[in-house]
Amino acid sequence: MGKKTYDDHDLEYIKRVLAEPQDITGNKMVAEFEEKFAERIGSKYAVAVCNGMCGLHTLLAAAGVGPAVEVIVDPIVQFGALAVLYNNGVPIFADVDPATHNMDPASFAARITPDTKAAVITHLWGLPAEVAQIRAEADKHGVIVVEDCAHAILAEHKDKKVGAWGHAGMFSFQASKHLSTGDGGMLTLSDEGLLQEVRSLMNWGAAPDRMAYNFRMPGIVAAVGLAQLERIDDYVQQDVDNAQLYHQAIEGCDWLVPQALPSYSTHSQHIFTLAFHGEKQGIDYEEFKRVSREEGAGLGFGYTQRTWKEAQIVAAYQFPTFSVPVAYGKGCPSRCPHYAKQLPYRDGYCPNAEDLMPRLCLRGLSSGTRDDIARGADGLRHAIERVS
Ligand SMILES: Cc1ncc(COP(=O)(O)O)c(C=O)c1O
């Protein structure tokens, strides 16, 4: 059985939407989903969107990001940095803590300049970033903090859920996520001004005098979201339990290092992640990858920046989108008349991220069945025995 269940309960909600007049000015089910979601996360407001990326795009536009505006982002995943490019802003990458894979608050503080307007902080793989410390530093400089919570629904940092720490948070309901509507997303907000901007930007019909976007969530999608929200605790708990199977598989192995979990955080375990350090004990990484595949360990190596060649798994800014850059080759930020500084995307810019990136061994947990995951964990145990 698949771990996410869609049944008559979801259909009942969908039927309620179809029974209402179809109207873009505000579907009742969307409003209900927003209200319940905000309640679950502990944020003041929530706004449903058509997916996570359009949510990040809108939040940064609402925060005033544009040409020559710097936004601090993560170097492991590209989502935050891409949303900055959509707005013609300048992604400035902060380095990570190699133990947690999340943004290092000291590197964040060091990257703030008078041109910094916002930051996108990812709670990587489901582990909350040091968002309390980052928010406190950001507030000193008037920097708007957007949390990327795509992996981390219900995860807590210091007794508060992610999505309630920043000025805003973004959740993705894409197919592989804990809560899935196929595609979809939710923004959580604590700031009234930002809320008004977001509402006006994401519905062009409501703001025809602006260059707004049509990023609304349809009522039918909200119906599924609302039904799935009632099951989200079970889904997250299943991933937390499944992660234990992988933790057990690496017991006694000191060259595969899981993310460190601070005592004041909970992990939602969207992706179970290890860093390979076997070379220090003479274990060949390519051999480990080959044996892991043979044993069906279910691991992926590297993240989105592996689409080139697996042998070249690089930090976000070393990928062609930013380093060449192929996306906005003629304009901002690479050849922006408004931005007088040199783009800092040289090798060695975020040394911890560059070192960590090619070591990453990932197992997505939110779409597999318990049996698949148990088989994968067994496969990993066998692979470790064979190469040790
Ligand atoms: C960390 C992170 N941020 C943002 C996104 C984008 O979300 P969506 O696919 O809903 O656009 C994803 C999706 O995979 C993600 O993993």
What's the arrangement of secondary structure elements?
Blueprint: H1 8-19, H2 28-41, E1 45-49, H3 52-62, E2 70-73, H4 79-86, E3 90-93, H5 105-111, E4 116-122, H6 131-141, E5 144-148, E6 156-157, E7 160-161, E8 168-172, E9 185-189, H7 192-201, H8 219-229, H9 232-249, E10 256-258, E11 271-276, H10 285-295, E12 300-301, H11 320-323, H12 351-356, E13 360-364, H13 370-387
Helix pairs in contact: 1-8, 2-8, 3-4, 3-7, 9-13, 10-13
Pyridoxal-5'-phosphate binds at residues 51-53, 77, 79, 122, 148, 150-151, 172, 174, 185.
Short description, anyone?
By secondary structure, the protein is α/β, with parallel strands linked by helices. Helices cover 36% and strands 14% of the residues.
The count of DSSP E runs of length 2 or more, i.e. the number of strands, is 13
Overall mean pLDDT score?
A: 93
Give helix and strand order, one letter per element, not per position: HHEHEHEHEHEEEEEHHHEEHEHHEH
The oligomerization state is single chain
Could you give a short account of the major beta sheet? 7 strands, mixed
Could you name the CATH homologous superfamily of the largest domain? Type I PLP-dependent aspartate aminotransferase-like (Major domain)
CATH architecture assignment of the largest domain? 3-Layer(aba) Sandwich
Query: Domains counted in the coordinates: how many?
Result: 2
CATH topology of the largest domain: Aspartate Aminotransferase, domain 2
- State the helical fraction: 25-40%
Radius of gyration, CA atoms, in whole angstroms = 21 Å
